[in-house]
Amino acid sequence: MIIAVLVAGPAAVAGCTTGADAQHAATRPPSSRAVQPTHAPAPLATATSPATAAAPAPGPFTISFAGDVNFAERTADRLRADPATVFGQAAAGLRAADLTMVNLETAVTTGGQAQNKAFTFRAPPSALIALRDAGIDVATMANNHGADYGAAGLRDSLAAIRATGFPVIGIGRNDAAAFAPYRITLNGTKVAIFAADQVQDETTLRLFSAGPTSAGVANAWSDRLVRNVRAAHRAGYVVVVYLHWGTEFHTCPNGDQTGLAGALAAAGAAAVIGTHAHVLQGAGWRADGTYVAYGLGNYLWWRSFRNNQDDNGVLTLTFRGGKVVADRFAPSRLDDRGVPVPATGAERARITAEWTADRACTDLTATPPK
């Protein structure tokens, strides 16, 4: 149960930006999972006084990550029917960790102007409620579809985030807000999660990359990302970065991915998670101990392609002592509703083998370095 509310306000991370629309802080007790989500935002609460309750001793905690989520065609139909049941059988797996995060690959608006690109996605504010109801705790909109409906769509997205109280990072009314982390205490450990977009998409990176006075998404090509990660690490946070990057339909990471992963690891990131390629990419530990998952694929998705684009899963990382000490991948596959149904039997074995094989073209290992 969350005992200190998700609030917007100045960062407590030394050297990080302040005044962010999408910046949040929360605390969870040991072995925590929030109570079943409801359609209403969490009520305000008063933090426990140090005089009446001692802070928990730092211990291990878990964070689960899934890939790309959007609401178009078949998944839009599910959203209209009932936000609480959109994720179907997948919801139980999403609720299992202390914290769960996905990439929300859509503008949150019913208006705006569709940008000049092959695919544009938008969803009503109920999309954020659907995420909460599925057991998801935070999402990133730092991707090449977060600004699909222009400046008006961005304003609507930010208004929906404020109205629902659902934490979304990687997007904001300016670059300070877009680069601000989601902050939470898990089992006595301070955690800061950043998000940014490395996809060289005309709409997002040139027209709607957040600037000093302009709304948009966090641009991973800016040195601000690495600087903020370094500052958070030095301030005592365990740092996670969720990125939108890679080459579509390629199971191997490209040079931009490996280069940025190395820079973030050097800055102190404990884990770097990615999406965008629409297929699974390799995951494991770098020699320096940073865990990298290059691509988690399509998760709740508007179309199926009857190939490896339909394979996905939930990656759960266990953190202890500031590092990822264990990983677990629970494979799933899109069904005709766009729901990632947990895989069983031969299908589970096939997707697990695919996940393992994708590591071969990376410099990652299946176990932490000694």
UniProtKB/TrEMBL annotation:
Location of region: Disordered: 22-53
Name the InterPro entries on file. Capsule_synth_CapA, CW_Biosynth-Accessory, Metallo-depent_PP-like
UniProt biased composition (Low complexity): 37-53
Q: Where is the Capsule synthesis protein CapA domain?
A: 62-303
- Chain segments annotated as transmembrane: none
Name the source's superkingdom: Bacteria
In the record, the note on similarity to other proteins reads: Belongs to the CapA family.
Q: What is this protein called?
A: CapA family protein
Native source organism of the sequence: Jatrophihabitans cynanchi
